[in-house]
Design brief:
Elements: E1 22-24, H1 32-42, E2 46-50, E3 53-56, H2 57-65, E4 83-85, H3 90-98, E5 103-108, E6 111-117, E7 126-128, H4 130-158, E8 161-165, H5 166-174, E9 180-186, H6 189-200, E10 203-207, E11 212-216, E12 228-233, E13 235-238, E14 247-250, H7 253-258, E15 268-270, E16 278-280, H8 285-290, E17 293-294, H9 301-304, H10 308-319, E18 322-323, H11 325-337, H12 345-356, H13 361-370, H14 385-403, H15 410-419, H16 424-433, H17 438-445, H18 450-458, H19 463-470, H20 475-484, H21 487-498, H22 509-515, H23 521-535, H24 542-559
Parallel strand pairs: 1-2, 4-5, 9-12, 17-18
Antiparallel strand pairs: 2-3, 5-6, 7-16, 8-9, 8-15, 10-11, 11-12, 13-14
Helix pairs in contact: 1-2, 10-12, 10-13, 13-14, 14-15, 15-20, 18-20, 18-21
Amino acid sequence: MARARHAYPQVEPGALAGAVPVIPAPSPAVTVRQALRRCRDAGAAALVLGPGRAVRRADLERAMAWGLGRLRAHRLALRGVPVVAAQASEVSVRRRLAGGAPMVLIAAGRRPVGVVEAPPDLARPLHSVARELERLALEGGEPDVWLLRLCGKVAEGMGVRVHAVGGFVRDLLLGRRTGELDVVVEGDGPGFARRLAEELGARLTVHAPFGTASLVGGRGPDGARVGRVDVTTARREHYRAPGALPRVERAGIVEDLRRRDFSAHALAMPLAPEAFGQLLDPWGGHADLEARRLRLLSPLAFVEDPTRVFRAARYATRLGFRLDRDGRAALGLALAVGRYPALSGDRLRAEVGLVLDEPHPWRALAWLGRHGALGLWDPRVVAGPRLDRRLGVARRLATRARAAALGLDGLTLALVAVLGAERPPVQRACLARLAFTGQPGRALAAMARGPALARWLAAAPRPSLVVRRLLPLAEAALVAAWLAGGPGARTRLWWFWTAGRRARPALTGDDLLGLGVARGPAVGTLLATLRDGTLDGRLDGAAAERALVTAWLRRKGGNT
């Protein structure tokens, strides 16, 4: 029986509290299939490959479900996993989990004996972002702060919880402004969006099957326009195959953050009035922001959704972040998996478009080349210094063309820069992978003519011949000639773009009819002849052109 006022010793649980067994890898060459079988037989949650390196059983099971049993298990390893001694306190384990570690290994001496994984509902400490919100308001972001508070009040009235997430929170912590707000609702996302749209007077688009909605055109209390708001229902995701669109189901906010790509995006700011100004950081994303590091939440993140590679390029070049070592290993794994038949070419092509919308698209394309990510189009694509040089030439051409208002298509320029030096079969395979079919595909495939066209232009053909040959060609062929050619070829191409293709004779078709030329193909033939004479300096003005047409009519009359 307990005695009043008696001091009982407090027993603090050790590091092994809550730990589950682990097993060492039998050899570095163990496959996913073999590793999973051993984990199941031993009831182990992880396979330990060495100090601070382990593969989670859950990742082995996902890889097996996707038909990747022959892969070496070390391709799925987490590196830098914290290790604590078995005699350490449970607090030391929780502290590391709170810092964003996905798991903590427990060791007796040098022998791993258990692992503690971060559960999906692990309570994490909330940090304050009040200073960042104050700075945002002082720098002209009062409407943003007002909108955040309004979201919290609307959600409170509905009895649901809502959080700002993703890029908004990331940029808030980085001291950047963003024009959009992403919010996640634990509950009825579309219902919340409808109520918010009523408050803002915004136009609402609801995607009910996905539990999402978008609001645009809303206004604040002073009539000031507020930015776009994207609303998502908190969810977890399951991928039936690598590259497939996920199956989703409702979940809590921590599970919603767990499904995201990088830790820097697994951040949430509760908007409820009582929690406003706090930060939920389950996976250590704040520390990664400070280190300017892109860290994946799973070694299979690029496999389950390869389009994340293109997002990595965008964030790395826009924010000046680097992909960490585990991320580079995960990219290598994604490239080793293969072709991703469940990933549509339309999705890949859309990611290219998003890259081109970046402030520094050429840097992002170079990043993709340096990291081998263009192998997702076709493994035969060659990157390296050659690609860097071509991207540099393309960037300078884009800048010059923009200043001259030439209207060169950015997507064509980018694809030709990346693929123009590849062999035609590789070019065609990449275009097919990006779902360029029919006439658009044929127009881009004309890039294969670029090198031969550049050599012909370097031989200084007459201006009229340049116009006659280049006018019917697709833009991809001309861009490819620019990238493959030297100064002479580029001089003639620039002349064609800025002057030659718009050259016209002084006389018009109506003038020719007035001189007696019969309607029909002869009008077009004569106009082309007059243009050629003007370009080559043989005709100078309307009088000379009339004389040529008159002589032509006289000869034609004599022949008849």
